[in-house]
Amino acid sequence: MKNLLLMKEMLPNDYVGFTFFVGCMAMMAASAFFFLSLNQFDKKWRTSVLVSGLITFIAAVHYFYMKEYWAEVGQSPTFFRYVDWVLTVPLMCVEFFLILKVAGAKTDLLWKMISLSVVMLVTGYLGETVYKDSAALWGGISGLAYFVIVYEIWLGSASKLAKAAGGNVLAAHKILCWFVLVGWAIYPLGYMMGTTGWYNSMIPSGNIDIAYNIADAINKIGFGLVIYNLAVQSQKD
User: Fold this and answer.
1) Can you give 116-139 as a three-state secondary structure string?
2) Are 155 and 177 in contact (CB under 8 A)?
């Protein structure tokens, strides 16, 4: 209670703080929705919906702390954001494996996706916080891992498994692929705006927290809703 009383009051024109607050509430509401809907699904899809709830719940907790950090310090909560991502992004990759199990997906796909996402995030964090003078190099490694993920789900073994599964699974897989290709594209853009490198002549530096917050809510909640709809449609078949 004491910490809450010591928190700075959010100003009416603090749009960044507002998106942190809305992001926290939206993620928490989505978590409640996913968790409360678990009993309507059989074991085949319950794990997928549970993971969707975990993704938004973890994000909601971190957004609460990011909101406080922003209010107190007035700087982008880079550390908290990467802790959030290193937990939630691999779980989003796990969702691909879970929905493709019906087509015979093996654990090597699971660990490949998780490993690539961790490399993408750890190298991004190093370039943005620890080795700022070589941010372009670390960003390049992070970007390479991202594009390997994109290749895997669009053209690689994950894509082949989705086509083999067909029907609702294929449709859900395609939507998730678009989330990764388009929705996740905001993150490398934010990285370039927040670091120094050859790209600064084309992409100006600046605060991109508002875009990050909106993208996080759309990507994480949207991912979960696609999984939820797949589970619902599959139960009807």
Assistant:
1) HHHHHHHHHHHHHHHCHHHHHHHH
2) no
SS3 155: coil
Q: Taking the model in full, what pTM does it have?
A: 0.91
- Per-residue burial over 1-10, b = 16 or more CB atoms within 10 Å of its CB, e = otherwise: eeeeeeeeee
CB 66 within 8 Å of CB 20: yes
Question: In 181-190, which positions are buried (b, 16+ CB within 10 angstroms) versus exposed (e)?
Answer: eebbebbbeb
The C-alpha angle 235, 236, 237, rounded to 5 degrees, equals 95
Distance CA 228, CA 21 (A): 25
Q: What is the chain's Cα-based Rg?
A: 19
pLDDT of 26-78, one tens digit each? 999 999 999 999 999 988 899 999 999 999 999 999 999 999 999 888 889 99
Half-sphere exposure (Cβ direction) of 9: Cα atoms closer than 13 Å: 2
**How far apart are alpha carbons 62 and 87 in whole angstroms?**
11
Q: How far apart are CA 175 and CA 178, in angstroms?
A: 5
Contact 162, 170 (CB under 8 A): yes
What pLDDT sits at residue 6? 41
Ordered domains of the chain (ranges, CATH) = 2-236 (1.20.1070.10)
CA distance 86 to 221: 17
